[in-house]
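Translate sequence into structure tokens.
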Amino acid sequence: MEDQETQNVISQIDPYLVSPKAFHLEMPPYHNFDLSIGMVEEKIYEILSNRNTIDAYCIWCDKEGVFRAHDYLSDNISIPRWTTRHNGLIEIEYRCTRNESHAYHTYYLKAGNFFTKVGQFPSVADFQIPQAEKYRKILEEEEYKELTRGIGLAAHGVGIGSFVYLRRVFENLIEEARTRAMTENKEFLNEEYLKARMDEKIKMVKDYLPEFLVENRTLYAILSTGIHDLTEDECLQYFETVKIGIEQILDEKIIQKEKVDKAVKAREAIQKAHGKINGTK
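Result follows.
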């Protein structure tokens, strides 16, 4: 088991190296590694030879599940290093413990110290987009499409484009808050809002936004910097981080909506019960 300091170093080198799940199921195709870097080589070998289970969403069961390693890199020879062998195509397979016909396959190409992911079935998009289905209940149809387009583009190695769509989702959340503020607060300074930078806009409508968004409003700066200043690969490197941030914001909105819906149902039930009791007297 790695200590937290080592895990943090690995995450900084490449976030897809933090776990077999991230490496096999979330990393986009043609993500390259240099195996001459010792820590990278060691971590990739650890992931490829992993025989333990991983927790992951099963697109066939339509729920979280446990997947067991079925095909993995088997190499018990310590000298010379595994990098001197296993050139060519490497296939890894994980099977759902509920139903072994539910299997994720990933494919890698190794040529000397060059290592890259060349394929996955089902695709990264097939794996990630169904998990976004729950956000339909709080997003307009076009907003939901923008979220899934961003996920789909990142899954196909398009980093900057994926940031564009995630930023639109973020901006739509702020605009929704502004609309509520204008409706519910007669003293809301809309003209001042329109002239403000995004950071100030968020502060002006913070009472109508999820707490996580307000506390982590630098997420917008990361998305904007990615679109204007970062490379495709750099955007892909940070995509999972910003996606998780967006999902956390949306998860908070779902909780808020469910709380409101539950209160409405409870109020109606209490009123109905009260009416029946009074009617029997």
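Note: The beta strands are 32-34, 54-58, 63-71, 88-96, 103-111, 114-121.
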